[in-house]
Amino acid sequence: MESAAQLKDIRGDHAEREGSTPAPALFPPPGGACRPGEHELHAHHGEIVQGVFYSSDGALEHGLVTLPCTLYRTRARFRPLRSGPLTVEPADRTRARAAARLTLDALGRTGWGGSIRIEGNVPLRWGCGSSTTDVLATIRAVADAFDVVLEPAWIARLSVAAETASDSLMYGPHRAVLFAQRRGSMLLDLGGPLPAVRVLGFNTELDRGVETLALPPCKYSTWELEAYATILGLLRRAVEKQDPVLLGRVATASTQIMQRHRPKRFMPELLAIAREAGATGVQVAHSGTVAGFLFEPGSGSAARMEEARAALERLGLSKSWEFSTELATQPEPVS
Which residues on neighbouring strands pair with residue 326, listed in sequence order? Predict the structure, then answer.
């Protein structure tokens, strides 16, 4: 994990990379007033796409596009102290504590402490962003305590410094982006939200999970690199046309490539269920255990989802849940 010093001073480093200086309003004097801060945000349900892509300068970057999910949320509360220890509850949320320390230092509050309280229902080790939601909610709660609004690009840098890899939740569910999860930067703004879909979700490992941050980056073949370029083009069109059918095809293509690297149980059967139930596609948490069938919204989707649910139960996957991304893509307040 990087320290604030190793970040080369996030404020100056960001200005150097972006060719501009930070707005003074972002960093009020350390002696300014403060108050308890808090922030709540939703998690995600794995990815629509995860792979490797060419950046604007021609370099290859690992990247992902997350699927927003309103079923799971995290709230962080931060009570600042001008001096003293920095504590977190529950005590095992060490990445949230690291994020708070980095944020305080970036805001010029080196030496400040305080207490962080994390609450929420995001499943651990499923690939739904439990670590990222802890970290992002904490960063924004600390900023809120000093009446500061940080830009998503700054939050992304702080988040990756605190937890090594991060999802793109700092950009909000109403803005689909291709995000370099280990570099903490946006590779491509897709120009709008993902098309609205209904999702039937389930855990492929019967409530077991994995330590997602411990997984090494995948090594893709030349063929897969070319395939991801095509997949990204189709995804851009799906967002432009707000086409849930095309979005499902994109998700399935990415799922099938990832099956070669991080296989999910029952994948042949799951793909067959999706076809038979009329789902537009299958998405997975590429570094987790959850998966979901995507359905086009409409009056017929309920019956199709019930058909898929019954088929999952025959496989022994008796726990499932459903949600719509339509609500998730509405803009949320900053805090």
Answer: none
14-41 tens-digit pLDDT: 344 333 333 333 445 455 568 999 999 9
Does the pTM surpass 0.90? The reply is no
For residue 90, cis peptide bond before it (omega within 30 degrees of 0)? yes
Range with the poorest average pLDDT among 55-64, 156-165, 279-288: 55-64
| CATH numeric code, 10-189 | 3.30.230.10
Calculate the alpha carbon distances from 260 to 13, 67, 253, 267 in Å. Answer: 38, 21, 12, 11
Domain locations along the chain: 10-189, 198-328
219-255 pLDDT per residue, tens: 888 999 999 999 999 999 999 999 999 999 999 999 9
Distances (CA, A) of 25 to 103, 143, 150: 15, 12, 10
Check: CB of residue 250 under 8 Å from CB of residue 49: yes
Domain 198-328: which CATH class?
alpha beta
Beta strands in 55-210 (DSSP E): 60-81, 86-89, 113-120, 177-180, 185-189, 198-203
